[in-house]
Amino acid sequence: MSQPKDALARLDESSPIFLRYLAEGAANVVYYLCSSPGAALGDDDFEPDNYLQPSGVGRSDLMPDVRFKGKLLRLRKAIPSAVSVIDAQQKYESLIRPLFMESSIVGQELCDVSRGLLEQCNGKLRQFERDSSRNVSRFGVYLNENEHFGILINDMSYDEGHVSVEFKPKWLVQSPSAPADSQRCRTCAMQARKRSKAKKSGLTKDTDFCPLALTHNSMEVFSKAAESLVSRVTGPSLEAASVVDKLSMFLYKNPLLQHLKDLQMKLDREGPLQTNFSEDFSLAMTIRDCTLFLKIPSSNTNIEARLGDLDFKSPVGGKAEYWKKTEQQLIDEGWYTCTEEGSATAKESMCVLAHL
User: Fold this and answer.
1) DSSP 158
2) Which residues contact 341 (CB under 8 A, 6 or more apart)?
3) What are the residue ranges of helices labelled H in the chain?
């Protein structure tokens, strides 16, 4: 830990600050921190049931710690593969942060979180389940109440006058253990498999973009990927067209995505089937699961781009076996080579590899 525990910002059940549930993944839950309901998102987005209100809210003798301003709070779930927050932050500081310029990563720091607040947060998650407002795939998994640290993250998700776009670049180069005759890259193969499973379950799965397009030397290919990203936020409109133009030119000229691609190639030359799950491979998997946050202004061309979700991906807790099993399934079931079941009537159209 880079600073003593008593020097950290602290959140507990009596803190004078609201926590608004924002999102969750397999390992973490993320909250907005704000001094009043709706302050982080605007009144139009105010949903009272999404807020956790510690007892200190509204007390005139208590003031929110200034270190919470403009921050999100990320809390760890109780899952077997989870690395402790302190260990994860130490890995971030020593292994991940030095790989990037400070201006290209989302700032993050430790904070102290009480067990009582974690219990309140878990109570809210259970309420979401009863109300059917929590994703059913997340049911039954809650925050680790024995983990008394969280991570404060600079908020890149909302800024008036900007369009905020975020996405995971994923595998910017083909998996080293993919078949030589692949017609899909690693990410497109995974997406095709997920779409097939969703269709069989009577669900729909939106078509994503091909990550290889993000470092392609063709501006036309770049623009199609940018259009797919922006449409998630703005929908089809003149505003969207303007944002696409700005984003396309930015991605085309900015070296950040190419740097991610170079790191992936350097850190993993073998792929999930041949690797010995070294520290370098874990770093490669970390970079393959990071998020790129973009703030695109409507008035000028200065786009802010930062990488976040850079949690170290440890192979322990079943992760190594999962990575290897997933790769083997993509190969054996024909998802890389477009020879999966039913492929005679559904050829690949999105992946850059299919058009080489």
Assistant:
1) -
2) 333, 334
3) 85-91, 115-130, 186-200, 219-234, 238-253, 256-267, 279-288, 319-332
Are the C-beta atoms of 351 and 195 separated by less than 8 Å? Answer: no
Hey, what are 100's tokens? 């990037």
* Distance of alpha carbon 70 from alpha carbon 295, whole angstroms: 15
Other Cβ atoms closer than 10 A to 347: 9
Report how far apart, in Å, the C-alpha atoms of 171 and of each of 132, 177, 226, 264, 304 are.
33, 13, 17, 8, 22
Q: What are the pLDDT tens digits along the chain (356 aa)?
A: 455 556 888 888 888 788 889 899 888 999 988 776 555 444 444 455 666 766 545 554 445 677 888 899 999 999 988 889 999 999 999 999 999 999 999 999 999 999 999 999 999 999 999 999 999 999 999 999 999 999 999 988 767 777 788 889 999 999 999 999 999 999 999 999 998 887 776 555 555 789 999 998 888 888 888 888 777 665 555 566 777 788 888 888 889 999 999 999 999 999 999 999 999 999 999 999 999 998 888 776 688 899 999 999 999 888 999 999 999 999 999 999 999 987 654 566 789 998 87
Reduced to 3 states, what is the DSSP secondary structure of residue 34? strand
**Structure-block tokens of residue 180:** 């030589």
Question: What is the 8-class DSSP label of residue 54?
Answer: -
**Residue 306: both structure tokens together:** 């930062």
Nearest to residue 172, comparing CAs of 312, 284, 95, 272?
284
148 within 8 A of 111, measured Cβ to Cβ: no
pTM of the model: 0.85
Burial class (CB in 10 A: 0-12, 13-18, 19+), 287: buried
What is the residue-wise DSSP string for 21-81? EEEE-SSEEEEEEESSTTTTT-GGG--GGGEE--TTTT-TT----GGGTTEEEEEEB--TT
Q: If you write DSSP's letter for every residue of 74-97 in order, what string do you get?
A: EEEB--TTPPPHHHHHHHIIIIIG
> Chain centroid to CA 247: how far?
19
CB 309 within 8 A of CB 291: yes
> CB–CB of 285/323 below 8 Å?
yes
- Contact present, 112 and 9 (Cβ < 8 Å): yes
